Amino acid sequence: MLTGVGVNTENEKAVARRQVPAVTRAFAILRLLSRSPEPIGVSQIARGLELVPSTCLHILRVLQDEGLVDFDRHSKHYSVGIGILPLARAALQRNTFSSVVQPELSALSNRFGVTSIATQLTEPQQMVVVALAQSSIPFSLQVDLGSRFPALISATGRLLAAFNGLPESTLRDAFSQLKWDHPPTFEEWTLQVAEVRALGYAVDPGTYISGLTIVAVPMFGESGGMTRSLVTLGITERLQSGEIPRLAQAMMTIRDTLRTSQIDTGS
Model-level pTM? Predict the structure, then answer.
């Protein structure tokens, strides 16, 4: 139950956010540009974010001046600028969790022949890759540090739904916007979420990406909800079903070791 103080605190936070709409819009523009496979024009950006075109253009020019956005004078299109790289690099370098989990991911990848990543939950409801390791086998999957994906997609999404107490209405709305190669129904997905809650880990057997088996283990914050996860991605033909429980157990051992060592694995 929320106390009066809790309600006031949340209201104060909401008011504070409303007092700087330009900042919120600037981040929305950067997120939109980062998701776009190619540069886009101001009209498309404004339309996609429901912004007044003149306001959108003003923010874009400020971001361009700061080096966070690039502008092509010929096409009149915008894209994310390389000026954002030092910020991202500094954030990753200061992330103690990333540096500590890295050797564990490398050992896991070599042992099981999978791509291993660590993700962190961020707003607005996305998972960000903060550490990764490729296997030593000739074929590997391309995953980039800093990649973002919807928090409820694939195996990590089942973890989030299982352990973070989100209302069914919120889950249903977010689920309807997800894109899968072989999309499950919401009812099928909720049954899978219940199984995840019992097992303590999640498996996506090619529903998100055909031919790719994804295994994910949750890492919990002080509030008890999942804030990070350990994830492995393997070619389904190489990763036999009997090996998945051993892989998941190895991942949970890494999680528990980091927690026992009092490494900051929370938010």
Answer: 0.67
